[in-house]
Amino acid sequence: MVSGSLTLLMDVLATAPLRVHVSLHQPDTADEVAWVPKLLAPAGAFITLVVRDPAGETRFETHPPKIKPKLRPDDDDSYLGLEPGYSYGIVLAVDLPQLAGGAYLLEAGYTNRGYHGTSGRPVGEIALTTESDLFLGE
Question: Quick check: 117 and 31 in contact, CB under 8 A?
C-alpha cells in the first residue's frame, strides 16, 4: 500500500527464527524528499508482523511492546529525509510458535504512531502494508 509516494518493502531472510528485512522506500520517481521517523524497532512497536495460514487464520502476530523511545516526536533529529530512490529499514527477528510445515502468508504493517514530524520536517500520518509468501518446513 502507498502512503504519499512511500512504499513498504519486505524480504524474508530466514524462517527459524523468522528474520525479515522491512524498509520504508521512496521511489526514484518521487518529486521530493520524504521525511520519516528514525524509529523502527522493536518488532510490534512501529512495524507489525502477522502470519496467516491458507485459510486466512492468524497463526502469529506481534503485539505493541511497552517502549520508552530515546527520540522525541517534537525533535528534528528524530526524522530522516529519504531522497528519491532511497530506503530506510531494519532486520527484525521473532520466534514463531510451532507451526506445521507449508505455505503461509506474512503481512507487515508500518505506522509512525505519534511521530508526525515537526514544522521543519513534516511527516503526517504514515500507514503502509505489504505481504509475502512464507514457506515453513524442510
Answer: no
Distance CA 17, CA 37 (A): 27
Report the pLDDT value the prediction gives residue 71, as an integer from 0 to 100. 93
Question: What are the backbone dihedrals phi and psi of residue 100, each rounded to the nearest 5 degrees, phi first?
Answer: -65, 145
CA distances from 38 to 56, 64, 82 (A): 32, 17, 11
Alpha-carbon distance of 8 to 10, in angstroms, equals 7
pTM across the whole model: 0.92
Give Cα 99 to chain centroid, integer Å.
Answer: 23
- Cell 518488532, residue located: 43
Using alpha carbons, list the distances in angstroms from residue 13 to 2, 19, 22, 88.
23, 5, 10, 17
